[in-house]
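Moderator note: this is an archived Q&A kept for reference. The question asked for a predicted structure of one protein chain; the sequence and the answer are reproduced below.
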Amino acid sequence: MKSPIPLLIFLSSIFLLTLLILLSRSKPCSLSFSSSLDNPSFHIHPRLKIYVADLPRSFNYGLLDQYWSLSAPDSRINSDPDAELRSAIAASGRRGLLPYPENPLIKQYNAEYWLLGDLETPVRLRAVSSVVERVYDWRNADVVFVPFFATLSAEMELGWGRKGGFLKKEGNGDYSRQRDVVDRIKRSDAWKRSGGRDHVFVLTDPVAMWHVRAEIAPAMLLVVDFGGWYKLDAKESAKESQGNTSHMIQHTQVSLIKDVIVPYTHLLPRLQLLEDRPRTILLYFKGAKHRHRGGLIREKLWDVLLNEHDVVMEEGFPNATGREQSIKGMRSSDFCLHPAGDTPTSCRLFDAVLSLCIPVIVSDYIELPFEGMVDYSEFAVFVSVNDAVQPGWLVSYLRSFSEDQKNGFRRKMMSVQHMFEYDNGSPGGVGPVALDGAVNNIWRKVQQKLPLIKEAIVREKRKPGDR
């Protein structure tokens, strides 16, 4: 008698083949495990649950109403990039979903606008690939998002307030808003539950919420870098060394443990690889020569590079003329210099990536967005300060890169450009976000912080009270 095993194997093979054919025709599913796992929309873990703190509209979209009703231009620039649109909005009487300013001093920090827009997007419009789920009971939330446009608030005071009055509290509209926001948030049951450790503030401008930083230090802060905080950290460290700091995660005011570095908003348009043309300049930089703190390196680099062949160093300001010059310069150059300014980073880095100009990052210490998700060394050149200021060293080093290496950098840049894009193309920023764009990637980084944040909250709860 013949063994039934070969027949069973044959029938099983037919069954599996039929099943695979049927599944391959079914759109909702896929048996391609590698492509599914590589796709960020393939959610192995639950979505990040976010509760939006209850703040009046005057602290977010109401600030946009106020901005677009201004009659005078920003006192810091010699033109008004928003004049035409401001007139159109006034003439139409438009209210509700308003655009964020095009003023480059403000636009570069507009993450707050797109993140809140994502949370305001109705469930029926939310993309399947969204990383977050908005909940309406703070007890069910992983984090509490504070919907304060802190950057817009600060920039309106800087551009339209009293000259030299930003650091003062009296008569400072931004300080009044900061104070009001913090008082409201700290009175909430959600804050009391965690001491604010699970609260999220968007502080992309280095001076956002300047006067109240110590009070919100336990929270998760979304910042473009830590450059505006070092001096405060030094003072706080000296104070805390006198006493017990065990109730805090190991940080003074900012820390990679609890905070998230987010991208600046690029100010130059995206260049596709197919649109790229031969580049005739070795190294390009346009910006202010004189900066403060870590930005003093700019003056040294300027003096070293100014007379080098195939190197362009231009003084510039973020106005319409400067923008066009930057587009031309970055698209004509192999490398774009990125020295520190008043803080370690600037939107210039992301303008370079969007222009397929290989960033040359001169810094001994810099924190960048989405580390662990993207390897910057695959498309940027990192140079120490000591090496960069040696006469002739930097240009010699950059000339050592072959055309194949430079083309490889540009191909990699093209593959990650979308990660630094905030704009979802929807009016007022309210609409489905891109699958692997800046907004979703920020939420992913927030989600990565949760275990340590929750651990800190539990540790605080089990501490014995004062007796």
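Archived answer notes: The radius of gyration is 25 Å.
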